[in-house]
């Protein structure tokens, strides 16, 4: 059956001018943990990219390795304000009942411990170089996002990204 999860996140405290401005933005790639009915493993990290017609499951360490699975980003909206950057993504994924091939646990939709990593990009004016970063559900908060080139604080990740099953 087709399931849809809504993923939302917000960064605050963005620096909006001068050399400290880093043009911080959400990248169109995210990683989301789902129970995969293809490899029949629970809690698999699955990579989704905007425009891709399928997702990539991390698979298992033995036997069934990385593989494509039925999943896509159905909607991807970003917002920005004076000092904040928001994201809302709808992720569609197919799911069917199964028992984990390793430990016999029943698969769930979403997985029993939903986890997400959201990717960011930026440009450092001081170093004249681009960079990447990410936020994820299992970070200690508040978390300051710093430029890898000049160590400036670009934003604050004060709240955990939310994952909500819609269908």
Can you describe what's shown?
The chain is mostly beta strands and about 170 residues long. It has one domain. The chain is about 0% helix and about 55% strand. The protein has no helices and 12 strands. It has a 6-stranded antiparallel beta sheet, with no helix packed on it. A 4-stranded antiparallel beta sheet has the order 6-7-1-12, with no helix packed on it. A hairpin with a 3-residue loop joins strand 6 and strand 7. The radius of gyration is 17 Å and the shape is elongated.
Choose one word for the global shape.
elongated
Query: What does the average pLDDT come to?
Result: 92
Count of domain modules: 1
End-to-end separation in angstroms reads: 10 Å
Order of helices and strands: EEEEEEEEEEEE
Features of the shown structure:
6-stranded antiparallel sheet, mainly beta, 4-stranded antiparallel sheet, elongated, 167 residues
